[in-house]
Amino acid sequence: MRLPRSDAPVGSPTRPPTHPPTEPSRDALVVVDVQNDFVDPRGSLAVRGAARLLPRVNREISRAASTGSLVVCTQDWHPPSTPHFARDGGRWPVHCVAETWGAQLHPELRVSAYVPRIRKGVNGEDGYSAFSVRDPLTGAEGATELEDLLRASAVTRVVICGVATDYCVRATALDAMRLGFETAVLTDAVAAVSLRPGDGERALDEMAAAGVELRPDG
Ligand code: VGL
Ligand code: ZN
Questions:
Q1: What is this structure's pTM?
Q2: Is the Cβ atom of 167 under 6 angstroms away from ligand 1?
Q3: Is 33 in the pocket of ligand 1 (CB under 6 A)?
């Protein structure tokens, strides 16, 4: 008797597929603005305690990579002159000017070249949130490419670390909630500018009140 060849056609399936193939939902780790001007003590808007976060953030990046999460980095990325800067009528010292040392990701951030970089503020807007930008003069709002990227990757949960708790982390977390993502902030992997004492704590309270999970340790 001839045995069927192992590569013989198996004929029509006995059971039709009952579920359409669906992509499993994924987490995204959003690493916010770990750039020289915020993280290096010589940076123009150095955030106290930010350099100490680097090993913690790196650990989270390797963990995310090993569990199949999407990893995304953001970069504050300003033109040399913008109403975001105090000398042009705004609030901040000149920082993270496009293509300068201050705008580069910190050299100790261990992030592969394949990790997408989301740049915000590129047209002179305030770019506090990784998802959206806002012209401080006209109030006009726009989107970055982050939401589309997350949706295309079937991301349903966003985990946030980086700087600054009271500006870009806060704005990113509140936007993520508003857009319907489950959202968590790694509270031992963020640091605040704190123009006024307590701003970091107040920002965390506000995020929690909006439904953001504050995740203390990992
Ligand atoms: C940021 C102030 C000005 C931030 C950006 O990354 O939190 N803060 N621009
Ligand atoms: Zn900025």
A1: 0.89
A2: yes
A3: yes
Instruction: State the ligand closest to the CA atom of 163.
Output: 1
**Domain containing residue 85: CATH number:** 3.40.50.850
Ligand 2 centre from 99 Cα, in Å? Answer: 14
55 in Cβ contact with 186 (< 8 Å) = no
pLDDT digits (tens, 9 = 90+) for 136-192: 889 999 999 999 999 999 999 999 999 999 999 999 999 999 999 999 999 999 999
76 in Cβ contact with 47 (< 8 Å): no
Residue 2 resides in a domain: no
Question: In angstroms, what CA-CA distances link 185 with 31, 100, 176, 182?
Answer: 11, 29, 11, 11
Could you tell me if 160 and 189 are in contact, meaning their C-beta atoms sit under 8 angstroms apart?
A: no
Q: Does some domain include residue 16?
A: no
**What is the number of structural domains in the chain?**
1
Confidence label for 4 from pLDDT (cuts 50, 70 and 90): very low
Which bound ligand lies closest to the C-alpha atom of 167? Answer: 1
Range of the domain at 130: 26-215
Whether residue 13 is predicted with pLDDT greater than 60 in this model: the reply is: no
